[in-house]
Specification:
It comes from Trifolium subterraneum (Subterranean clover). This is RNase H type-1 domain-containing protein. InterPro entries: RNase_H-like, RNase_H-like_dom_plant, RNaseH-like_sf, RNaseH_domain, RNaseH_sf. One of its GO terms (molecular function) is nucleic acid binding. Pfam families: RVT_3. The mean pLDDT is about 80. The longest helix is centred in the N-terminal third of the chain and has 15 residues. This protein starts with a helix and ends in a 10-residue tail after the last helix. With about 120 residues, it is mainly alpha-helical. The chain is built from five helices and two strands. Strands 1-2 form a two-stranded parallel ribbon. The chain folds into two domains: about 60 residues, no CATH class; about 35 residues.
Amino acid sequence: MAELCGVIRAIEIADSKNWNNLWLEIHSSLLVLVLKSSALVPWSLSNRGMNCVRLARNRNFLASHVYREGNQCTDGLANIGLTIDRLTIWYDTPPQILSCFVDNRLDKPSYRFVI
């Protein structure tokens, strides 16, 4: 649910800034399906969810699934987002994700091991 709220907020911000090209890479494949079919939006978020689906359809919009390992920087930013209560804009890479950002720039692979 938190990730859905984050995606809804991202679409609302893109709309407020008149961004017409929007590509969201999302960790949840179910959430990608929700964005493609407004019938899957939970009732508690249905009004905002339906509005976001409508806003997305009026843009060059793409939502795709990416595993956490595929974008550790995004996963780190999502974790930061859970701890803050307001819109935050960084002009430099946040220190919490600096190491994974450098690894990404160096094309280092990332893995997740499940025991």
